[in-house]
Structures are given as structure tokens and as C-alpha cells.
Amino acid sequence: MTDTAPIINPPKQPLFSVRRVVIALILVGAVAVLVVTWRGTQGGEGGGTGCLNPAVKAWDPCPGDRILRQAQVGVELKPGYDGRITVNGIAVPEEQMQGAIVPGTEAYEQLSAEERALGPRPNNKNLVKFQPGKGKVVEEFSGQVRIGIRYWEETEGEDTAQDLSYTVFVT
After folding, report:
1. What share of residues in the chain are helix, strand, coil (percent, to 5)?
2. How far, in Å, CA of 110 to CA of 31, rounded?
3. What distance in Å separates the CA atoms of residue 85 and residue 62, rounded to the nearest whole number?
4. Residues 6+ apart with CB under 8 A from 13
5. What residue spans define the domains of the chain?
6. What does each C-alpha distance from 28 to 13, 18, 32, 35, 104 come to in angstroms?
7. What phi and psi, each to the nearest 5 degrees, are found at residue 115?
8. pLDDT value of position 165
9. Cβ(168)–Cβ(73) under 8 Å?
10. Does the pLDDT at position 158 exceed 70?
11. Is residue 49's pLDDT more than 70?
């Protein structure tokens, strides 16, 4: 004699039960939140949450990001724009901005008179960035850092400048 348990088939569930519909809605909602969050933290055209600005080509870093104490901050404007940067309300001299060519250096001596007349950033006016360091107006970042950008179309002049600002956080 063998003892075998009877095979019991579980009852079939309908394809669209309330439980399955609720689980599907939760999964769709979670995916939507992930997509919105991911798109909100991307750089580039209009990257970053609340960063839609027609003059800004790229954010470095995106608003709200975490940075290191010596990180570069600022924006890349579209070609044809110029700008200046402030860090926690401190105006960064143009000579301390990224890409500036310091007078007296070999690179400066190689510039033409027309290029020298354009200031310390003759070939990259649209890069409005700053990296702290020894001897600069800001030697290192700490805590919450407020970045201010004043920008304008080169053909229109600084009288037509607009302002934007954002915050990043030091890790």
C-alpha cells in the first residue's frame, strides 16, 4: 500500500484581479518616479531640476548636486554669450575664471592685439566657470555653495544681462 496525497489544484485567479491591478499601478508609478528623477539630474540642454534656460548649454555641476571642496562650478553658455560668476556672493575676477589667459604668460604673448583687446578669455567667453584654489577669491568650498551667473549676448552687451543662480552642496 502506498500513501500518496491527493493532488489539489489551486483555484484559478482571474487575469485582472484587484490585487494584480494595484500591483501593476504601483510598479508603473515607481518607474515614472525613477524616470522623472533621472531626467531631473541630467546635465546638458536644460539639465537639472528647474534648470531650463535657453542660454545655458550645460551645467557643471547640476543644481542641487553634491561636489568636492575643489570642484569646478559654473555653466557653459551657448556660443555668442558671455558671462561672469559669483560664489556665495563673492564676484570672481575674470582672470580667475576657467580658461583665462593670464597676462605675462607665454600663452598671452602669443595672442594677437585683437584677441588681447577681448580680455582674459578671448576664445571661450561662453565658459563661465570657476575652480577654487590657493590665492583665489575662494580657496575651497564648504557646506552649501550658492552659484550666481550673470550672462548676456555678446552682440547686445552687458547692459542686457540676465541673472540666474543655483545651489550645490559640498560632500
Report:
1. 20, 25, 50
2. 54
3. 15
4. 20
5. 56-170
6. 22, 15, 6, 11, 61
7. -65, -40
8. 92
9. yes
10. yes
11. no
Fold of 56-170: Immunoglobulin-like (2.60.40)
Q: Compute the CA torsion angle 11, 16, 20, 25 (nearest 10 deg).
A: 180
Contacts of residue 167, defined as CB under 8 A and 6 or more positions apart, other chains included, come to: 63, 64, 144, 145, 146, 147
pLDDT in tens, 70-109: 999 999 999 999 999 999 999 999 889 988 887 777 877 7
Sequence-distant (6+) residues with CB within 8 A of 48 are: 40, 41, 42, 59, 62, 63, 64, 65, 166
Q: Is the pLDDT of residue 46 over 50?
A: no
What's at 57, amino acid-wise? K
Please report the beta strands in the chain, taking only residues with DSSP state E, as ranges in sequence order.
56-60, 66-67, 73-77, 81-87, 90-91, 127-130, 144-153, 162-170
Q: Which residue do the cell numbers 575676477 mark? A: 93
CA distance 167 to 34: 23
The proportion of the chain whose per-residue pLDDT surpasses 90, expressed as a percent, equals 47
121 phi, psi to nearest 5 deg? -125, 65
Quick one: pLDDT at residue 20? 85
- How much is the pTM? 0.65
